From TrEMBL:
Keywords: Cell cycle, Cell division, Cell shape, Cell wall biogenesis/degradation, Cytoplasm, FAD, Flavoprotein, NADP, Oxidoreductase, Peptidoglycan synthesis. Its main location: cytoplasm. One of its GO terms (molecular function) is UDP-N-acetylmuramate dehydrogenase activity. This is UDP-N-acetylenolpyruvoylglucosamine reductase. InterPro entries: FAD-bd_PCMH (IPR016166), FAD-bd_PCMH-like_sf (IPR036318), FAD-bd_PCMH_sub1 (IPR016167), FAD-bd_PCMH_sub2 (IPR016169), MurB (IPR003170), MurB_C (IPR011601), MurB_C_sf (IPR036635), Oxid_FAD_bind_N (IPR006094). Its cofactor is FAD. It comes from the Bacteria. It comes from Clostridium brassicae.
Amino acid sequence: MVQSRDVINYLKNVLGNDYIKVNEPMKNYTSFKVGGPADFMVIPRNYEQVANVINLCKKNSIPYFIIGNGSNLIVKDGGFRGIIINLSELKLVQVIGQRIKAQSGALLSLVSKAALKETLKGLEFASGIPGSIGGAVAMNAGAYNGEVSQVIESAVVMNKDGIIRELSKDELELSYRHSAILKYDYIVLEATFKLEKGDYDTIKNRMDDLNRRRREKQPLEYPSAGSTFKRPEGHFAAKLIEDSGLKGTNVGGAEVSIKHSGFIINKGNATAKDILDLIEIVEKVVKEKFNVELAPEVRVIGEDKIE
């Protein structure tokens, strides 16, 4: 538990009382709706504040973790010992010609809508992804044959020393659900997307079609983190899980969705442990039946709850 009075006073001086939360339940900040309390959550409103918090953590050996919309994250039931840096207030979106510059806390869905408004095509695939720009760049988010790497031009990042630099698309090293952001523990501050002029109705119809398909095929009525597992080379995770007879399998309040077996959902009052135990069961059974190793797409932080 981070308790130093000097640390608390520093955070108050840097951020102000209204942007620091103590013992904050992380279930309120993840799309899975699970997670114990974080010692501290801070909500910076500019890049200088982010750098100041990072430097504080480094100086005092305090663990920290960056979150945006919490849509690809499981926080364990014991919570997080350290500081959660919530970038949701960094959400400015600017359209400059055929480019869109968006801060890391801006939601992908809203950036897609900004593109539609300006009749810019290329972000249709992202209109239904629930994540923020920072997470989308870090994970090279994608859906329906589109992904961030196809449209991003550059990103402004901060390293572990609080130093800011701009990375080109090549320097971002974007691959399937991976990037230089994860490799080097960078923090995404903003990203620039280069799009093309399109037709408003064509763009909107594409977005509407993809969102209709999501509603029909995905269990959006339940908390989840989207697709739970990465796509194994040469296979589809959902098909492997379904062919293993795991649809509807549950642990506590967590269930392999009957609607889409690639999703593990919180059917009500699931704990992080329920979800993680179910992930382990799915991995074990698929390995036994098909000799294919599934890897979770979701990131896991925090510590187990002591009973």
